[in-house]
TrEMBL record:
Family: Belongs to the glycosyl hydrolase 43 family.
Organism of derivation: Paenibacillus algorifonticola
Annotated site residue numbers, Important for catalytic activity, responsible for pKa modulation of the active site Glu and correct orientation of both the proton donor and substrate: D128
Domain of life: Bacteria
Any matching Pfam family: Glyco_hydro_43
CDD domains: GH43_Bt1873-like
Name this polypeptide is given: Glycosyl hydrolases family 43
GO biological process assignments: carbohydrate metabolic process
InterPro entries the record matches: Glyco_hydro_43 (IPR006710), Glyco_hydro_beta-prop_sf (IPR023296), Glycosyl_Hydrlase_43 (IPR051795)
MF GO annotations: hydrolase activity, hydrolyzing O-glycosyl compounds
Entry keywords, A to Z: Glycosidase, Hydrolase
Length: 295
């Protein structure tokens, strides 16, 4: 198995798990070669000691012949929870709306197996589910209802059971893509607004913020929404300026083994040039400051 640098890995929607026990990093993503069309092979993971060289790809999910979905395997996010590893990811089949489902494994490198078919409503076109645990220890999933169904993409939160099997109650609308002044509509009438890639983070000052991505003036753009209540239900207020506006996004935060806060996104957003990118960053007065890009 070869070792690669980030520039050699064709992933969209990168997600990095830091395993303190193993002293390893695990990188997941939407496989670039067949992300938009064609039958999906599954999900791969790369493993690293230092964030510079990555060993892989390691197949971590390959669907059995009777698995219901065969394309649009997108945005895998992996969480360690009560002794196991769970992957939230998007799945679709012809004639069946896209969902966020859950896979499970005993190790971060898999193999992952089907766990919950869908945590999103069966008649909604959804994607990019991300886990959030509230102050009471209850798990929620934040996800996008796609613009192809609602035109102005929507962001929702739904409480889920502790075993990640089912949703609890109805999804709660948090905001719409057009609520951000830096979101740019597309399509013939410029009214198609995208919601992508939510990621929740509790700032050092206690503020709850959400990274999310959409189309902007210079291509794919990622900005910040802030919960005025500090709770998942909001209300959510959009920052007036995006965090990253130069054709990159779908970001998440992680802290290195040495304690450095980092952001990973894919950039550019043009197929097939998408690659994972890592930036060091810091918090100051409730704001993120992008530092240098890791090479």
């Amino acid at each position: 198995m070869s070792k690669k640098q980030l520039g050699d890995i064709h992933f969209r929607d990168p997600y990095i798990v830091v395993d303190q026990g193993r002293k390893k990093y695990y990188l997941y993503g939407s496989t670039g070669q067949n992300v938009w069309s064609g039958k999906a092979l599954g999900f791969d993971v790369y493993e690293s000691d230092d964030l510079a060289e990555w060993e892989g790809p390691i197949p971590c999910f390959r669907p059995e012949p009777d698995f219901w979905s065969d394309h649009h395997y997108w945005a895998p996010e992996v969480y360690e929870w009560e002794g196991r590893f769970y992957m939230f990811a998007s799945f679709k089949a012809d004639g069946i709306p896209r969902v966020t489902g859950v896979l499970a494994a005993d190790q971060p490198q898999g193999p992952f197996e089907p766990w919950s078919r869908a945590l999103t409503p069966q008649d909604w076109e959804c994607l990019d589910g991300t886990l959030f645990v509230d102050n009471s220890g209850d798990p929620w999933m934040v996800f996008c209802k796609e613009w192809v169904q609602v035109q102005d993409g929507e962001m929702y939160a739904v409480r889920i059971t502790r075993d990640f099997k089912e949703a609890v109650g109805e999804p709660i609308l948090l905001f719409k893509a057009s609520d951000a002044v830096w979101s740019v509509g597309g399509g013939d009438n410029q009214q198609n607004y995208v919601t992508d890639g939510p990621f929740l983070h509790r700032m050092e000052n206690g503020e709850l913020v959400m990274m999310w991505s959409t189309s902007g003036q210079e291509g794919y753009t990622m900005g910040i929404a802030r919960s005025a209540s500090g709770q998942i239900v909001g209300p959510w207020i959009q920052d007036p300026e995006p965090l990253f506006a130069k054709d990159g996004g779908h970001g998440m935060l992680f802290t290195t083994l040495e304690g450095q806060l980092c952001l990973t996104i894919h950039a550019p957003n043009k197929h097939p040039q998408e690659r994972p990118v890592i930036f060091r960053l810091e918090e100051a007065d409730g704001q993120f400051i992008l530092l240098d890009q890791m090479k």
